[in-house]
């Protein structure tokens, strides 16, 4: 399930998002119209894609700014919810006008290239525990491969 920015409940969460937005804006060329950051993470492993849409509508990718990546990592820790777990993928979209939106996906397997092995997800679950009802099928299968759940 993907959740929007309304779930930013604490000042720590809001400051992390605002810091990531500031870092993206600072790294953008003068001709930008819209910025997008997709951040995928587990404990100790992350990957980010930074997309820039110019005023002429041209889209390009760039190296994500390190400060934005660091802030997103902070945000993942800050947004962890007991039983629900931590999100795996976050998407920030920033408009030149200053408006931005954020979405957080707790349930879909993150699009790592190459895909992560089962032990990465087991380590993530150890750090960010989830109640059984918040473990999606793909994650349960990975955890089973890591020896956490018995085969049925």
UniProtKB/TrEMBL annotation:
Cross-referenced InterPro entries: YezG-like_sf
Protein name: DUF600 family protein
Organism of this sequence: Actinomadura harenae
């Amino acid at each position: 399930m993907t959740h929007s920015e309304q779930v930013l409940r604490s000042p720590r969460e809001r400051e992390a998002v605002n810091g990531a937005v500031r870092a993206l804006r600072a790294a953008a060329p003068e001709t930008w119209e819209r910025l997008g950051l997709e951040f995928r993470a587990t404990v100790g492993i992350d990957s980010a894609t930074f997309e820039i849409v110019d005023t002429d509508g041209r889209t390009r990718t760039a190296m994500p700014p390190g400060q934005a990546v660091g802030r997103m990592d902070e945000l993942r820790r800050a947004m962890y919810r007991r039983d629900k777990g931590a999100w795996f993928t976050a998407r920030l979209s920033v408009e030149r006008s200053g408006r931005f939106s954020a979405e957080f996906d707790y349930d879909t397997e993150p699009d790592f290239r190459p895909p992560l092995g089962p032990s990465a997800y087991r380590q993530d679950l150890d750090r960010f525990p989830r109640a059984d009802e918040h473990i999606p099928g793909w994650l349960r299968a990975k955890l089973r491969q890591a020896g956490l759940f018995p085969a049925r």
